[in-house]
Amino acid sequence: MIKGLALLSFCFISGMWCGAMLGSWLGIDANVGGVGFAMAFLLVSKEYVTSKMGWNEEFAFGLDFWNKLYIPIVIAMAASLNVKSALSSGLLALLAGTLPVFLAFVVVKILLKQVNSEK
Amino acid sequence: MKELDVILDKNGLIVAFLIVGILTWATDVFSKKALNGRIPGSALAIGLALVLGYLGGVLADGDQGLADLSYFKGLSILGGSMFRDFAIVATATGASFLLIRKSGMLGLISLVLGIGLFFGMGVALGWMMGYRDAVSLCTIGAGACTYIVGPVTGGAVGASSEVIALSIGTGVVKTISVTILTPILAKWIGLISPGAAMAYGGIMGTSSGVAAGLAATDPSLVPYGAVTATFYTGLGCLICPSLFYLVLSTLLG
């Protein structure tokens, strides 16, 4: 279990490091895509480990535990944010949560016309 | 009671596990019994958590939502940026090269199209509502992608707690609208084949919304939609705070 967790931690730290380096290289005070880099590292190293040692339940558990904990963490985060002052912009959340969805359905329809007619 | 007070006060993080667990259990039951599983329990739980964050902010008159009340202060540890980013990286466990090959070119096109579309619309609406700085606009646009990409992006570029709350709220509304609209519009858009479900999953992106929407349309399509939706959040977390943020901050000077 701890080996899987250690691999996750290693990928996390190196990804964040890449993000921070990229940020300072570009001259902006932000972690540029660190989470994304870390995910890419995890994807690659997980494939490498599985191809070397095969799929190991115990190893995967260390990763899977955190994979499943992410929704609870987002719940905790949502409850500890400054929602009170965000409420004045609540209309924006409603609009930005619905209007693009309608447009996306139109785009899917156009794209699927091509997909379905190819077959 | 004094003893309990001390214990609750000392073990904030453990109390947070308990609160989130109870909240998840309650919304799961409500989603299954009252809504017939039509709206994903996770979206309901996050929505309810935002409501609780509002109540906490009003009661304690602070800016950390429910975590301003001393009993609930552990929520800000569990929901802090370290655990959040760590758990999101762990979600890459669900992806593999096999899945990437499976989703192929169509998957890639739909993912890029989907993220670009939601981000662009989110930024445009944020601009119309009076936000002018690249950090806030980028976070709102990312929130229009999913309720995960929003806070990850906001955290990376240094957005305020208020804007991050707004981006999560936007993402939750998106998940619910995708869930409700999918079964209604499925016929009209031609959502009939596994390939179609993959393209749809890549454009819509929100994995819980895609899964619930497809389940209500045709349960056999769920795994195909999930293949591409899995990559949406990861790709969003990679390009929103990097490429898209750079473009925005260049455009806005």
Describe this structure in words.
The complex is a heterodimer of chains A (119) and B (253). By secondary structure, chain A is mostly helical. Chain A is 83% helix and 0% strand. By secondary structure, chain B is mostly helical. Chain B is globular and about 60 Å long. The model of chain B has no long low-confidence stretch (mean pLDDT 86). The interface between A and B is large, with 77 and 110 residues.
Question: How are the SSEs placed, and which strands pair?
Answer:
The complex is a heterodimer of chains A (119) and B (253).
Chain A: H1 2-25, H2 34-53, H3 57-68, H4 70-79, H5 83-86, H6 90-118
Helix pairs in contact in A: 1-2, 1-3
Chain B: H1 2-10, H2 12-33, H3 41-60, H4 75-78, H5 81-90, H6 97-128, H7 134-145, H8 149-157, H9 161-189, H10 194-204, H11 207-217, H12 222-251
Spell out the helices and strands of chain B N to C. Answer: HHHHHHHHHHHH
Please state the oligomeric state of the protein chains shown: heterodimer
Largest sheet of chain A: none
Mean pLDDT across all amino acids of chain A: 83
The counted number of beta strands of chain B is 0
Total of domains of chain B: 2
- Please indicate the percent range of residues of chain B in DSSP E strands (runs of 2 or more): under 5%
Number of strands of chain A: 0
What is the number of independent domains of chain A? 2
| Helical/strand content category of chain A | mainly alpha
Radius of gyration of chain A: 20 Å
Total DSSP helices of chain A: 6
Rg of chain B, Å, rounded: 19 Å
Provide a count of the helices of chain B. 12
Distance N to C terminus of chain B: 57 Å
- Range of helix content of chain A: over 70%
The average pLDDT score of chain B comes to 86
Poorly predicted segments of chain A: none
Largest interface: A-B, 77 and 110 residues
Order of SSEs of chain A, N→C?
HHHHHH
